[in-house]
Automatic annotation (TrEMBL):
Pfam families: NifU_N. It comes from the Bacteria. InterPro entries: NIF_FeS_clus_asmbl_NifU-like, NIF_FeS_clus_asmbl_NifU_N. Residues 3-122 form the NIF system FeS cluster assembly NifU N-terminal domain. This is Fe-S cluster assembly scaffold protein NifU. It comes from Pseudoflavonifractor gallinarum.
Length: 133
């Protein structure tokens, strides 16, 4: 079996898929390896990510990892959400085939880009290295 049950589940029933009106932060990133694109929207209240949505033109693994990533950051403080790594997302999905690991990077980068956008819009200072992919 190439893909875990969790990957198949998140691919077939992606959580938090779609656009968000009035997002507080939007991150758009491209995958240097395959050229695929990912967009992440966040809603923030009192430093907590209260809602998150994603849209991607990426493959099934990109969909599954983003779906899992949105579940992992929803309801979390921003400071914790930006620490989410693609390895943690892959682990939460019970693994991904090696040649698909690059797809999981999109979700992590998109979340960080959305947070950066939120910080920029609100004039909040941050350390670049905290938001580096
Ligand atoms: Fe680029 Fe999967 S979408 S190879
Ligand atoms: Fe491009 Fe998966 S995101 S191959």
């Amino acid at each position: 079996m190439l893909y875990s049950e969790k990957v198949m589940d998140h691919f077939q029933n992606p959580r938090n898929l779609g656009k968000m009106e009035n997002a507080d932060g939007i991150g758009e990133v491209g995958n240097a390896k395959c050229g695929d694109i990912m967009k992440m929207y966040i809603k923030v209240e009192d430093g907590i990510i209260t809602d998150v949505k994603f849209n991607t033109f990426g493959c099934g693994s990109a969909i599954a990892t983003s779906s899992m990533a949105t579940e992992l950051v929803k309801g979390k403080p921003i400071t914790e959400a930006v620490k989410l790594t693609n390895q943690a997302v892959v682990e939460a999905l019970d693994g991904l085939p090696t040649q698909k690991i690059h797809c999981s990077v999109l979700a992590e980068e998109a979340i960080k880009a959305a947070v950066k956008d939120y910080y920029d819009r609100n004039g909040i200072c941050y350390d670049e290295k905290d938001l580096a992919p």
